[in-house]
Design brief:
The protein is of the alpha/beta class and 266 residues long. It has ten helices and 13 strands.
Length: 266
């Protein structure tokens, strides 16, 4: 009995120590790896709920990546510096030139050649938006003769649908906003993009609806420059703790993000 009691006490102590370690500040070496300038520069796409939104009246910012980056900087004991970009392409270019220390972006094998990634913290559905009067009712019905699908050229929807679409026609334009204009003007029948962006479009422009179903899921993770292994280890623990403690879920709810779920614990 005493042996069992001692064993349970020891196990509990180990668990509590591990949990406490997640909340402690990083070692000086890990802090230097994560924020070599002494502040944590977080790359963010402005105007995207999963990244950061800015209130036009107050200037206050919120968003899933913004909230997580701010929390990470606070735990590290360094200043938080948001580095804002108008698009994912601009953010990636900024990362290549060393303008940010971490970014919360979609994982891909191509990006993994340039940056190291944690495990996913968020999963984003990709789907379609159509006019309310469209005869298309689900995502599965989009790929049919005569359907014109607008996509942001080079974006994830474009890359995924190019080999998958069999009979519908893809119309490529520079941005999601441009793709939406194609649908509003009747030059396209649907826009394909991530669902948070599609819900934002439908909220701002009555007369459009997001279709049920999805054609893919985008897994988002924290990216940072290669060779910063001590910082990456701390970032991985931070995100697993953020998922387990409900911080990611709270950030999703704070910005009213739809079409996104917390990634499973690893």
């Amino acid at each position: 009995m005493r042996t069992t009691h001692w064993l349970m006490t020891a196990i509990l102590a180990l668990v509590l120590t591990a949990c406490a370690g997640i909340h402690t500040a990083p070692t000086p070496e890990a802090r230097q790896a994560l924020a070599p300038s002494g502040k944590l520069r977080v790359g963010l796409i402005l105007g995207v709920p999963v990244q950061v939104m800015r209130d036009a009246a107050s200037g206050d910012m919120k968003g899933v990546a913004f909230d997580l980056g701010k929390e990470l900087a606070q735990r590290m004991g360094v200043a938080f510096e948001p580095v804002l970009y108008p698009s994912i392409g601009a953010l990636l270019d900024g990362g290549k030139s060393g303008k940010w220390d971490v970014a919360f972006i979609g994982f891909s094998p191509a990006r993994a050649k340039l940056w190291d990634f944690t495990v996913p913290y968020l999963e984003i559905e990709l789907g379609y938006l159509v006019p309310s009067g469209s005869s298309i009712s689900t995502s599965a019905e989009v790929d049919r003769p005569g359907t014109r699908v607008a996509v942001a050229e080079g974006g994830l929807a474009d890359r995924l649908l190019t080999p998958a679409i069999k009979v519908a026609t893809l119309i490529r334009v520079p941005t999601n906003a441009g793709a939406f204009e194609m649908v509003k003007s009747g030059r396209a029948d649907a826009i394909a993009a991530n669902k948070p962006s599609l819900f934002e479009m439908s909220d701002q422009s009555p007369g459009f609806r997001v279709l049920d179903g999805r054609f893919a899921t985008d897994r988002l993770a924290l990216a940072m420059p290669k060779g910063r292994d001590l910082g990456m280890a701390y970032a991985r623990n931070f995100l697993e703790d953020a998922k387990a403690k409900g911080l990611v879920k709270a950030a999703i709810e704070r910005v009213g993000l739809r079409g996104a779920v917390v990634a499973p614990l690893q």
